[in-house]
UniProtKB/TrEMBL annotation, chains A, B:
Any Pfam family hit: Acyl-ACP_TE
Species whose genome carries this gene: Enterococcus saccharolyticus subsp. saccharolyticus ATCC 43076
Protein name, UniProt field: Acyl-ACP thioesterase
Domain (Acyl-ACP thioesterase-like C-terminal): residue spans on this chain: 146-243
Family recorded in the similarity comment: Belongs to the acyl-ACP thioesterase family.
GO molecular function, one term: acyl carrier activity
Matching InterPro entries: Acyl-ACP_TE_C, Acyl-ACP_thioesterase_NHD, FATA/B, HotDog_dom_sf
Record keywords, A-Z: Fatty acid biosynthesis, Fatty acid metabolism, Hydrolase, Lipid biosynthesis, Lipid metabolism, Transit peptide
Amino acid sequence: MATKYTTPHEVTAYECDVNGTMKLATMIAVAIQVSEEQSNQLNRGADFVQQFGLTWIVTNYQLFMQRLPKAGETVYVTTQAQEYNKYFCYRHFWITTQAGEELVRIETIFALMNVETRKMSSVPNEIIAPYESEKITKIKRYPKIEKVKNGTSLPFRVRFYDIDGNQHVNNSIYFNWMMDVLGYDFLTKHVPAYMNIRFDKEVEYGNEIDSHYEIIQAETLQTRHEIRIGEQTYCEALIEWQEKK
Amino acid sequence: MATKYTTPHEVTAYECDVNGTMKLATMIAVAIQVSEEQSNQLNRGADFVQQFGLTWIVTNYQLFMQRLPKAGETVYVTTQAQEYNKYFCYRHFWITTQAGEELVRIETIFALMNVETRKMSSVPNEIIAPYESEKITKIKRYPKIEKVKNGTSLPFRVRFYDIDGNQHVNNSIYFNWMMDVLGYDFLTKHVPAYMNIRFDKEVEYGNEIDSHYEIIQAETLQTRHEIRIGEQTYCEALIEWQEKK
């Protein structure tokens, strides 16, 4: 059974939006922080991984949201490296209440990238062993994300504070770019229940991206998203929404 | 002697910029959070203040920065309501290391605003008494901020995630708008040592602001900043910089 790591997190007002619930961007940043804490505890922190000329990237997230954490609430963030194959590591996160109720489950696909070549690397046993996750041969894929067909878009310039210590645009920033375009009325009348997001290419400081979106009334209310520079897609997502109660 | 309140804060990677030190915006958000915690502890939280039809605003900040908190470091954030007069409350914050070394001192001027009329209100004794700060008659002013004379600017659209639970653009966002325009090279080669910022008017969701700035090589390296919409100034600041070691 793979090692689990749990840490409490007090949700502050500044981590929340006008609805008083946690910004998805912050939730993702906190989750990644917790996985870094686990890695440090297992002596597999960024420095260790860097000895191999590698760095972790996250290529996909699926979020299953029962309820978003609220300002003032203390939640527990648990992470576990579930399985891995030659190139991909499958890690889960759970955000739960003090009473153990699951609020959000986040499934992620991590990969290792060569810092110099920016190419994916196979996963060295020395890096992965301490997590005690199961080795599998299967490649797991999340559901395919449909393209934005009749979308509109808004431009976003990559800002200095969007880039993190690794000189990359932090993953969490893409969540803000995608959701902001939906506007105040939409974002105060709906809550996200499911999100599937896939990172294809790295956006860099100095880029200006277009955040394309399309609202689809299917069985559920859905929004489809693409972060593009010109015709090139850098990141794509599907979000399923519920009416806010 | 006015009541002091201290809380530890673990500086996470996502609170830091590419330099590995805490974003000023986050430092301000954390400070405000700590003052809210003190208010809650004294039963003078937002709900209590709202009974008077009022809400707190911060009109001025002065930051004295010896060294910015680093990712992974645990710092202590202390706050104390120092003095107040009819309209203004003077509150200090100190960010210190575990060993008690002062990293940052933040001086602030708070005022109470009527939620309906958006006008300033005098400070009711019922609200201020528990902080045990000293009543003074003098109005304290921070140094005058010189205008931007030969500046350049970049536009910023107010985004959904820039507004907080009070429907305002969070104060911390202005810090990002002001500093982002200085660019990667400047912001990775210099560290702020002093900042004096004054909030004149509220920017609202849907606005597009221009972040004007000018670099002045005086006795110290200074940058002057103005957030404007058209000819109207909403916020102004002076920052003094040192070469990054």
